[in-house]
Amino acid sequence: MGRGPLPYSHGVNDTSSARPWLAPNANGPVRGAVSVPGSKSMTNRALVCAALTDGVSVLRRPLQSRDSALMQTGLTTLGAQFSTLGDSVAVTGAPPPLAVKQATIDVGLAGTVARFLPPVAALATNRIDFGGDEQMRRRPIAALLDALRALGADIDDGGRNALPFAVVGGGGLPGGTVQVDAHESSQMVSGLLLASPYFRDGIDVTAVGAVPSAPHIAMTVAMMRRAGADVDAGPNRWRVQRGAYAPRDTQIEPDATSASYFFAAAAITGGAVMVTGWPHDSVQPSDHLIGVLTAMGVR
């Protein structure tokens, strides 16, 4: 108590320029309109769906970030092509089997890349190695690798059940029934689902135990259905029929997390903020936040 604001520094080891950081204060109701970046979760799911189509899709206002760049680079390695058109990205898909050369995909520190692309790599005709940042090597992925093995994939991980590993492709997967321990990340399930329309027998996946961030799996299912997949979703169980995604035009929603700060600013100051481009029906798990704010008296 009474110690004041914490100092900050422009440089990691530069203490000479350290000075107090004064938290901003609103002198009255906050009012205005803002445009926030596109949703990372939606962008990377849309990129995967578009990359597997037989045709050209357009993603409008996708997020430009390291995670999305790593996703595009990985999907390019697997045969897709990308071109920028203003604030949109055109994706020329590469439908399985993915006839690509042996290659390495860098997942960086992106959980979506690390967990969405190995099932896609299982549709390739050659070995695809996966590497990433040192910290990513300590993040959970064993349950996904175990599930891929159960579905017929050949995984070479040296017994580590962690990065680095390789998916030795045979041009496709039998698919079928599998159980996944997804308590560490819902992305384990989403990754399997996104590639599953191209498995010979589709997929029937059951999540064992509690599933964190289950609304993000609902987002995956909603986006798969919009892209043309046949998905039956029940409590902790998802069934996908063999099929294919269709090329489409996708408007990426403003990121719900980024928007939440502006919603909160309006709420606590009694102001009014417009987030431009907000969809009437969002696939993001944003209803919870809006529900809380509404319960607090916000319109």
Structural overview:
With 299 residues, the chain is an alpha/beta fold. The chain has helices spanning 40-51, 66-77, 111-121, 142-150, 187-195, 214-226, 256-269, 287-295, and strands spanning 7-8, 19-20, 31-34, 56-60, 81-85, 88-92, 103-106, 127-131, 154-156, 165-168, 176-180, 203-207, 231-234, 237-240, 249-251, 272-275. It is globular.
Which secondary structure elements does this structure contain, and how are they paired or packed?
Blueprint: E1 7-8, E2 19-20, E3 31-34, H1 40-51, E4 56-60, H2 66-77, E5 81-85, E6 88-92, E7 103-106, H3 111-121, E8 127-131, H4 142-150, E9 154-156, E10 165-168, E11 176-180, H5 187-195, E12 203-207, H6 214-226, E13 231-234, E14 237-240, E15 249-251, H7 256-269, E16 272-275, H8 287-295
Parallel strand pairs: 3-16, 4-15, 7-8, 11-12
Antiparallel strand pairs: 1-2, 4-6, 5-6, 8-10, 9-10, 12-14, 13-14
Helix pairs in contact: 1-2, 1-3, 1-6, 3-5, 4-5, 5-6
What are the defining features of this structure?
8 helices, four-stranded mixed beta sheet, 299 residues, single chain, disordered N terminus, alpha/beta
Mean pLDDT: 92
Helix content: 25-40%
What characteristic shape results from the CA principal axes? Answer: globular
The strand line-up of the biggest sheet is 5-6-4-15
Beta percentage is 15-25%
- Major sheet, described briefly? 4 strands, mixed
Number of strands: 16
* Rg value: 21 Å
**Contiguous runs where pLDDT drops below 50 for at least 5 residues:** 1-12
Number of helices: 8
Helix/strand order, N-terminal first: EEEHEHEEEHEHEEEHEHEEEHEH
Structural class: alpha/beta
How far the N terminus sits from the C terminus, by CA atoms, comes to 36 Å
Oligomer state of the chains in this structure: single chain
